[in-house]
Amino acid sequence: MNLQQLRYVVATAEHRTMTDAARSLYIAQPALSRAIRDLERELGMTLFARSGRGVVVTAQGRRVVKLAREALGAVGEIEALSSHGGVSDAELRIASTANLEPGLAGRLLPAYAAEHPGVRVHIIRCDGREAVVNAIRDQRADLGLTDLPVPTDLITHPLERQEIVLISPPGLDLPDPVPMTRLDGLRLALPARGSVRRRELDAMFGKYAVNPIIVLETDERNGWLNAVRAGQASLLWYRGMAEQAARAGLVVRSLEPAVRRVIAVVHARRRLPLIAQDFLATAEKGSAA
């Protein structure tokens, strides 16, 4: 058994089809199938059973997959040790929603870079929470920064609770805080219909029996802000992200009752690379400060 075979086992377990696993590994599907069969013969056990067009992990396979993840994680840590010696090509990949990226770049990354100057950080920009989850599941990101909830196959490390506020053009006759009932008939820019964030906002509107006037539906953050700057609509956004709106002359108000979301670093249920563990420690230290 070798490291390549362990990677094949883990990829097959995570993707649940030989075709998708082979694509993620950049090899041909028949080659992956042969490699898995050869490993099963070598171990004398069946790791995967066919199920329709995909595969399911057997009871023995689940144990092997768990140990394979631990072994690959340990190898990754050994390789990452060079990042603590002053010369490193280590890269940490962090998926973040557009709403939270400014806080990541402005607060968490400088603190991490000060302690680990040899590590390059690549931010994977995601349209929303679902995209962050997919980036982690597809192993395109080591960590994710998003609001909760996320699926239970991911591990969460809550950092803070952020308030949702109303950002409006100047001149609107609204109190501060704004009662939920005042959202009825208010012109709003909202996330695209069908997105997770939009469904959550629609649920909030239904809870308080309000029907805002939807002026714009998009997942582009700049599109929201441009609509507010143009005086066309108001926007529901995080308090921590509202500083740039206030600098642009827009008005930021709280809601009554207050609405808050838990922001967390999330990752897959496997051993994290050492550089990712270091980032998580920096983030949690900052949240406790």
Describe the 3D structure.
The chain is an alpha/beta fold. Helices cover about 45% and strands about 25% of the residues. The protein has helices spanning about 5-15, 20-25, 30-45, 60-80, 100-115, 130-135, 195-205, 220-230, 245, 275-289, and strands at about 50, 55, 90-95, 120-125, 145, 155-170, 180, 185-190, 215, 235-240, 250-255, 255, 260-270. Strands 3, 4, 5, 6, 8, 9, 10, 11 and 13 form a 9-stranded mixed sheet that branches. Strands 1-2 form a two-stranded antiparallel ribbon. A two-stranded parallel ribbon has the order 7-12. It is elongated, with a radius of gyration of 23 Å. The relative contact order is 0.15. The mean pLDDT is about 85.
Task: Give a short overview.
The protein has 289 residues and is α/β, with parallel strands linked by helices. 43% of the residues lie in helices and 25% in strands.
Topology:
Blueprint: H1 3-15, H2 18-25, H3 29-43, E1 48-51, E2 54-57, H4 59-80, E3 91-97, H5 101-115, E4 120-126, H6 129-137, E5 143-147, E6 154-168, E7 178-179, E8 187-190, H7 196-207, E9 213-217, H8 221-229, E10 234-238, H9 243-247, E11 251-253, E12 255-256, E13 259-268, H10 274-288
Parallel strand pairs: 3-4, 3-5, 7-12, 8-9, 8-10
Antiparallel strand pairs: 1-2, 5-13, 6-10, 6-11, 6-13
Helix pairs in contact: 1-2, 1-4, 2-3
What descriptive keywords fit this protein?
elongated, 25% strand, two-stranded antiparallel ribbon, 289 residues, nine-stranded mixed beta sheet, 10 helices, alpha/beta
Please indicate the percent range of residues in DSSP E strands (runs of 2 or more). Answer: 25-35%
Order of helices and strands: HHHEEHEHEHEEEEHEHEHEEEH
Mean pLDDT: 87
Number of helices: 10
* Largest sheet data: 9 strands, mixed
Measured as a percent range, the helix fraction is: 40-55%
Which structural class is indicated by helix and strand composition? alpha/beta
Distance between the termini: 46 Å
* Count of beta strands: 13
Identify low-pLDDT runs.
none
Please compute the radius of gyration using only Cα atoms. 23 Å
- The shape, in one word, is elongated
